Amino acid sequence: MSGVQDVRQRNKGKGINRDASGPSSAVDYDDHNVAYLPSRSYIESFLNTEEASAAVVAILTIIAFFTRFYKINHPDQVVFDEVHFGKFASYYIRREYYFDVHPPLAKLLFGLAGWFVGYDGHFDFENIGDSYTENHVPYVGLRALPAILGSLTVPIVYAIMKECGYSTIIAAFSAIIILFDNAHVAQSRLILLDATLIFFLSLTMYSYVRFKKLRYQEFSPQWWGWLLATGTFMACTWASKVNGILTVVAVGVAVLIDLWDILDYKKGHSMQYFWKHFIARAAGLIALPLVIYLSVFWVHLAILSNTGPGDAFMSPSFQETLRGNELLMKSHEIRYYDTVTIKHKDTQVYLHSHPERYPLKYDDGRISSQGQQVTGYGHEDSNNQWQIIPTKALPETGRGRIVRHEDVIQLLHVNTGTVLMTHDVASPLMATNEEFTTWPKDDHSRYNDTLFHLRLSDAAPGEAWKSKSGHFRLIHVPTKVAMWSHPTQLPDWAFKQQEINGNKNANEKGAVWYVNEIVDSQDPDLKAKLEEVEMKEPKRLNFFKKFGELQLLMLQHNAGLTASHPYASGPINWPFLLSGISFWTQNEGQKQIYLIGNIIGWWASVGGICIYIGILGADLLARRRGLEPIPDDVRNRLWNSTGFFIIVWAVHYFPFYLMSRQLFIHHYLPSHVASALVAGSVLSFVLSETINTPVSAWGPSVKPRPTTYADHGVKAPVMVAVFAIAMFSLYLFISPLTYGTPGLTGEQVNARRLLSSWTLHFAAKESGNI
Amino acid sequence: MSANVRARRPPSPIPSQPPRSQRFPTLTHSRSDADERRTLASKGYIPGRKPHPSGGVYVTSAEWKLLILITLIAVGIRLFRLSQPNSVVFDEVHFGKFASKYIKSQYFVDVHPPLAKLLITLAGFVFGYDGNFDFKDIGKVYERVPYIAMRLVPAILGVATVPLSYLTLRALDCRATTSVLAALFITFENGLITQSRHILLDSPLIFFTALTVFFWVGFCNEDKQQPFSDHWWLWLTLTGLSLGAVVSCKWVGLFTIATVGFSTVYQLWLLLGDMRVSARLFFRHFMARALCLILVPALFYMFMFWIHFAILSGSGDGDGFMSSEFQHTLRGRGMADTYADVAIGSVVTIRHVNTQGGYLHSHPHNYPTGSQQQQVTLYPHRDSNNDWRILNATTDGSEPQDWATLPLTYVAPGMRIKLRHAATDKALHSHDFRPPVSDVDFQNEVSAYGVPGYSGDMNDDWIFEIYEGSKKDPQSKRRLRTLRTHFRLRHALTGCYLFSHKVKLPDWAYEQQEVTCNKNAVLANSLWYVETADNVLLPPDAAKVNYRRPGFLSKFLELQQVMWTTNAGLTDRHTFDSRPDAWPRLRRGINFWVKDHKQIYLLGNPMVWWLSTAAVFSYIVVRGLLILRAKRGCKDFENTKVVKYDTLCGFLFLGWSLHYFPFFLMSRQLFLHHYFPALYFAILLSCGVFDLVTSTLRPRIRLQIAAVLVIIAIWNFIYLSPLAYGLPWTKAKCQNARWLKTWDFSCNDFYDSYDQYKGIDYTPQPSQIVPTPHGRGAVVVEGPVPIVSVDPNTLGKAEPGHDVFAENPHPDVKSDPAVEPVQYDPVVSDVKEISSNQPLVIPKQALPLNRLRRSKKPLLLQH
């Protein structure tokens, strides 16, 4: 160790001048010769030979495959979100349109896997616990896909560390944290998206590290190769799951820092040089990923060409591109004097009226007009029928009788012979909104109040109003309120039907209605049309329009996932592994699958991050006081390589604090991979201040510098071995919760409840003192 | 980040004469460089006059006269017709009401800390307000309320902000012209005027923000001069006190603390890098700041709450938000001592620990769903229907009702008990029915079931489990002790825990809180304690207990928590709320008051407002450009002028961004007036930019430019002043003044000409919109309908901001007394019961992620 001390002494006071030495920064390294440590321990040298490294990674990979594939056929039941993702695979095979908040790549892969193993898509994955064997689903084939990807993540993690210049034993340490992690194992053995996401994320990191290492050989073929590989894998991550967008952000942050360094005047580069770099990265990391992301959606939409459960989410024009869609089949133009039923889009109630009147006085003392009630009613009824009355002169026949966008109409309630109207009287439940009522059709004293503007959604001027597909808002002509409804029941005097009132903000979502059915028409042609049902060819729509609509809906629905779930947890719990998710339980034999990580690995990772922040904070303060406790090379390694892992960790973690949607512990798994890498590099720093340099390939402009080697001595392999054994033992101990087998008795479950916040099932009841 | 980066620091102290400060020698002409000499000359300090140190505020006597003149103008502008309108305006609804409650000592809870409200109350109290006006609605005419005195508090503080802005800019080393410009901009800012003329908290907030900034800038100047002098300590302590005052007005003051905090950290960072400062000296710097900028504000803040609690000693409508211990300290809310021990046969009332839902309650009404048995709820008030008798469920052979004849048995953990509702003689019961509201698999309904004389079935049995006792009462961990033991009740057959959460039952249960039996219960929501216990077997001299009276600290912390959770929960929409992105462009104002064809509408002075926003953006652009240039090797930051204005504008920009951007993270209801503290910084920043732009001009031209700007600002002010003061206006003028379509004051409310205002004094009662069922006459239309012209802004009704505490959280619905024993058909209910008498079933708990397509309600279906 005395040698190391010497190095520290000699490095003192040099750091500041390093940056100032200008363009020659990569040249003048002569005094680093002293850092060369020829006395490297035998174990260290042996482990870092290529053969030993290959052997280590081979062993790790084999164990990874074993842990991920062990009893993969158990349970032969639908587990947790297999309900969703298994179903989506069926839809791909059946080519039926569905809607999901996640981008399609990972699900497409499942579909592909299913098709490959000969699954015909007949099973619906309706409930957790449905049997696969009884329904003849080749589920092992589906589960094999994430298991393979999850297993491959282990050697990739190893390779990232190796490429970053850490020694074999440190790389193995990081890989072991992932290898024996029960959460990663549980998540990769089931039909879930996270294994795919993490696989592509680690590939992205690997490619980016390789790309960064070639920084002195810029614009060489390899450099381009790894740049494009980074872009490709990044796009794949993004296309796998919606939180893959964070990977894009992480790489973006790293690239911006990189570019900022290139821009530095002291580096001596011209602006032209900077722009070249900028454009290359824009092409590789913005343009290429976009193309890939779009093409994944193109494949998605090309496969899903038939009508399916996702139709209802889409706009009418989108729905008409799906074969067999109801809108496509049953949508007809509406003419004046047609009798129709009108439905509220959000709550699916019919526009309804009945002879009962509003009570004169409400409970809160406000007064009504005592007009006829207009309500929303959920069931079919003859009181739901309204006739469309024109306010302009009509031709006898022909297309002039069609109702069009921006027309002013009256709605006649057929049963009571009254017309719909609204006026400046507060509605029964909301004092800010106007009351809807009706008025006898022969009494013209309130004629103006019965006029409504028909405003179709996204319509061109003069577009015809169609049933089913023609979503519209009904704007009152004199007061500009829109007919609006909300899921609140009126009191008993209106038979608990839903309130309909006039909302001053016509752009509210709840103001959209559509014609459900044309009940009666004066047009004989239409009558005939209503009878026949023919197979229509789906219409075509521009891909980009479809993509834009789908993307917008995905964002909206992702933000809308706020319902509570018993196993949802806040981001603050995740790094400390305070809560898990119950995936599946079986009373018979007391079996369960509970997603929970290996607590040793998780706490080691979060400890590594804390130590890292502490080291850098102390270093910054010390430097401010003119001390330099860490040699420059080691410090650069901490800033650049570990810093990149920290960026990946932070970008995949902190944004969740801003999300108000349902969050689960598996959202932390990408960050956990990054934190395992941080833990490895921190361990390397803690054990010894020696590092392997240089890691980057030499370029033409860089003078070769002497090589130094990391030497962690004997203690590193011993420590890592002890750590691995501890990880493995705890992994084995928790594995019944991960694999769902064997069953556990109550006491055994209690023993595995390492933290009191884990909510395991079948725990033995403790009576008395708790 | 104030003026504490000096343009150029001398490399080392001059050896010949030891300077006064180790770090920063006095700035004199003899030792200043050419730049500084020029700066001094531009301010009138020519060589030969007495040299001024740059620290502190040194204002010449001529400037004092100028300052007094400006202040008088501000008095005229701010206090003009302060008595008009003589009715309640906007949030006076709330803050006036709070003053009434202070005067009457009735406890209330508000989301804002007390200082500003206390000041307003003080004014009201001094001028003899008796607290009997209810401030019910906007537009209600004041009767026997010294509302002018109360309005004077914010108005005077608003006036005081004007000279403060002048002094702050002077202390930041700006020219007198610039400072006058800033003072006049603030004087003629319509929004600040409107806001300071009514009983609202924002004017005190802005004043204290300005005061803090002023003190802090003064401190920074001192710090450059000579640290640890008496002046230095004075400025620092004053900064700390005013920081305490800001945060005691509104929690927005935390942003001011953040501004000063960032600035302090930066100062310390510079000190740390200064190798001439020894570690000991650095530590002294650090401790002095920690003491004055953390401890002093914290103590000040707590002292305000101490006064708050001291005044509000009586019970009021805020009780329901506080814990039982807290309520016990309020006059009129105390509880008599009760027996400490609970035994079989005791009649107890049981309270839920985690929510303020109240007592375990039952009343003779049945659930309309599920088992249709008698309801069990949580009820917040004391009532005989909260009484339950504890019976032993494991008595062998003997009936549970025999408790009176058996020896006294304390309730101990693991005991199997029944709870019998005293008034209706039914047992607390749970079975495999879904609860009425929380209709999920892992919750079971809890009901009261049984008939007199029938000892009940197994579903009435609960296992008593102690969760924790009190440290001071060791017995409470071993057996059930009133008030001290927190316990859970596990249903003997299904293993679920008696549970309640903040979910209200519908009307049929009088909106009381739902009680269920939860198999997957959150621990905190399944804890209960006994509040009162009575047992005839206990001797009258047996040990009695009562709530512990919480000390000031625990009361303080509890109130902070209530304020925090409620503040975050203020998410209702208000007609005139707005999001932060709309504020810098003055997209829309707030309707404060509409009456008698006049209105008050909070809207800024567009010229001042937009100019300040432009200044902020120009700073961002220029600073970004400077950073890029520095990266490419330009040496801008070695220019003293760049450094001076960068420090000045940088500090003001920091203040602006810290008072603005955090609002983006808030999902609560936000209003235009939340921008005002940031606006103050933005106006100062715009004047700083003015100082920079005109720095090369001759003083005369600079003065002319400033005069033009002020004249435009005054013209803007006059143009929109009827809205700020609630003066008569005409429709036409109003229409002309709607420069942006989004300014939604309703012009149709004004008369067509000023003549019509003559003779109208005021209507005594607020005008109300009366429904007009037969209003409009028939219009026969042929062909295309002419669009009837209607003013789109018919929503011209002022509403106060939402106050969650305005209503008692628990409506005082009286629980029905126990009526005559209800007629039973035991056979019928038995049939149901036998079927519910099921063996222990472990539910299947795994649930898929709750995605849209899994939800039971149709979310977006079209067919």
From TrEMBL, chain A:
Enzyme Commission code: 2.4.1.109
Membrane topology: Multi-pass membrane protein
Ranges for domain MIR: 331-391, 462-518
Superkingdom, natural source: Eukaryota
SUPFAM superfamilies to which the protein is assigned, alphabetical: MIR domain
Any single Pfam family the record assigns to this protein: PMT
TM annotation in the entry: 97-117, 137-158, 165-185, 191-211, 246-263, 283-304, 600-622, 643-660, 672-695, 716-734
InterPro entries per the UniProt record, alphabetical: ArnT-like_N, MIR_dom_sf, MIR_motif, PMT-like, PMT_4TMC
Stretches for region Disordered: 1-27
Main localization, broad class: endoplasmic reticulum
Keywords attached to this entry: Endoplasmic reticulum, Glycosyltransferase, Membrane, Repeat, Transferase, Transmembrane, Transmembrane helix
Classification via PANTHER family: DOLICHYL-PHOSPHATE-MANNOSE--PROTEIN MANNOSYLTRANSFERASE (PTHR10050), PROTEIN O-MANNOSYL-TRANSFERASE 1 (PTHR10050:SF51)
Family statement: Belongs to the glycosyltransferase 39 family.
Role played: Transfers mannose from Dol-P-mannose to Ser or Thr residues on proteins.
Protein name in UniProt: Dolichyl-phosphate-mannose--protein mannosyltransferase
Species, as recorded: Somion occarium
Automatic annotation (TrEMBL), chain B:
Residue span(s) of domain MIR: 339-393, 408-467, 477-533
Stretches for region Disordered: 1-33, 798-819
UniProt keyword terms in alphabetical order: Endoplasmic reticulum, Glycoprotein, Glycosyltransferase, Membrane, Repeat, Transferase, Transmembrane, Transmembrane helix
Basic and acidic residues bias: start-end ranges: 799-817
Lineage top rank: taxon: Eukaryota
EC number: 2.4.1.109
Described function: Transfers mannose from Dol-P-mannose to Ser or Thr residues on proteins.
The protein's name: Dolichyl-phosphate-mannose--protein mannosyltransferase
